[in-house]
């Protein structure tokens, strides 16, 4: 009997302990809070179903994407967020007594049933259209069945070279193009991507740009502290030929070679280049011996009438070079060590006019040499002040130039009263051409007009900082002074 009593007592104690543990565990709970957002933009998602395994309460997120599950028994759980059109997401959580556990679900769009966008339709320009402007908007249409965000890639090539330009990450169904080549056929194609499916390509479209207009005027404008070359037609419409990011100046047109020559900076030196009338196919002519003098703004070169040879200065030496960059030859050196700053070659090739000066630009002389390098004519010598702007008439019997009649000289090479003069080889005399110049201004960089009844030149205030204008005037005609192009300098008119 005693033995049975002991067994009963032990069983009763075990029952009490078991009941006691069950009661304590039943009181150990925690809370789960969280938020559900989109995986790409982190925007809150409303009405997302949140449930767990082992099972607890099932709740739905509010407008801020938030949810709360109270009275979750302590333990290890896997919580899940579910919403139509999104991929379900699981998060493991450990619930501890009297604590709040936080969860953030980032749901990604489900792509299982996502459809790709339609094939892009090229709208503008019309396929195989011609005479399109060199600044044009490419436009197209496309739709997406799921209203996904679309991005575009536009490829562009032309039949002038093998270059293919790619414009990526385009957001709109439009691409604005600038500075296309004149008279060139272009091919373009649009690729659309919805970020989910394989990219979709449009057919290839084609269009041809307008031919380059007939122009005769050349000049330079200052853009971003660089000299930039422009051309203009007789109506005054202007076209940029050289880049705004590079210093290019002193343009000269040659109708025989159908080229424009100019000076451009090449690293630490300046060189002569050529290009087509529309600014394409730029080619460097000089190399081992650059064009150089006392001041790059006041240096000039010349080429023969046929356009197959150049003459240009390098300090006290004059060089000749073929227009393809070959045949470099020294043809003259100043006898007194003065620098050659400007030169001009007569149309018949019998005369070369030179302007020489000291290292400061003064003590200037103008004289003429023959092709053998022999000085034949002294035009200006022994006068104070700045001189420049040499240009032969078509017959070679006259030469125009500018001279500061004030005789002023200073370290900044400032001119106070520069006027236009003409030398007549038949009379061996120079005389001032009256151009109704305003007081306090300078006439510079003078050249004959194509028919030589007019002069074209730069006029600007003598303060050295005011706007420069390209002006023309009749020779010996009163009150005929006209501003052709404002804000320009270094003109040429062929």
Describe the structure.
The chain has 494 residues and is mainly beta. The strands form 10 sheets. Strands 9, 11, 12, 14, 15 and 16 form a 6-stranded mixed beta sheet that branches. Strands 3-2-5-6 form a 4-stranded antiparallel beta sheet, with no helix packed on it. It has 1 helix and 40 strands. It starts with a helix and ends with a strand. The longest helix is centred in the first third of the chain and has 24 residues, at 2-25. Helix content is 5%, strand content 48%. The chain has 3 domains: 26-107, Immunoglobulin-like; 121-209, Immunoglobulin-like (Sandwich); 217-493, 6 Propeller (Neuraminidase).
Helix content: under 10%
Residue runs with pLDDT of under 50 for 5 or more positions: 1-5, 7-25
Radius of gyration: 41 Å
Our estimate of the beta-strand percent is: over 45%
Helix segment count? 1
CATH architecture assignment name of the largest domain: 6 Propeller
Q: Give the tally of β-strands.
A: 40
Q: Name the CATH superfamily assignment of the largest domain.
A: TolB, C-terminal domain
CATH class annotation of the largest domain: Mainly Beta
How would you sum up the global shape?
Answer: elongated
Spatial separation of the terminal alpha carbons: 138 Å
The number of distinct structural domains comes to: 3
Mean pLDDT: 92
Largest sheet: 6 strands, mixed
CATH topology of the largest domain: Neuraminidase
Structural class: mainly beta
